[in-house]
Design a protein that fits this description.
Blueprint lengths: L1 H27 L6 H15 L5 E4 L6 H29 L6 H15 L4 E4 L1
Antiparallel strand pairs: 1-2
């Protein structure tokens, strides 16, 4: 069932979302300072490409000072807007019963978009 849902996700906008994250990742990785942020958007692109059956977990190192600082910078430099857009799409999709599974995937992406440093995608 998860494979079918992932295929529907791709056809109904997942490929566009993943492509947007991939392009922004490449653009961020142009500079040395942007490489850590580009790696996080690359992580979000992989989740946006095939979200069903995957889970976002805090890694062992997620409470370190550097990860906290990088997450704060992430939020201030645009992570909050990414999170809010996924929350909005998730809320709109959850209006209908058919859209609930897809809305839940947007909520998963919103949680990752709020603090991606120190998070691992399992599944």
């Amino acid at each position: 069932m998860g494979c079918l849902m992932n295929l529907l996700w791709l056809l109904l906008g997942g490929i566009v979302t993943a492509l947007e994250y991939l392009i922004s990742s490449v653009l961020m990785m142009i500079t040395i300072v942007g490489i850590p942020f580009g790696m996080q958007t690359l992580k979000m692109a992989s989740l946006a490409l095939w979200p069903f059956g995957k889970e976002v977990r805090s890694g062992e190192r997620s409470s370190g000072c550097l990860y906290v600082l990088m997450n704060i910078l992430w939020i201030l430099l645009g992570g909050i807007w990414i999170c809010l857009s996924h929350l909005l799409f998730g809320a709109v999709l959850c209006i209908t019963i058919i859209g609930i599974p897809f809305g839940l995937q947007h909520f998963k992406l919103a949680a990752l978009a709020l603090s991606p440093f120190g998070k691992d995608i399992v599944g």
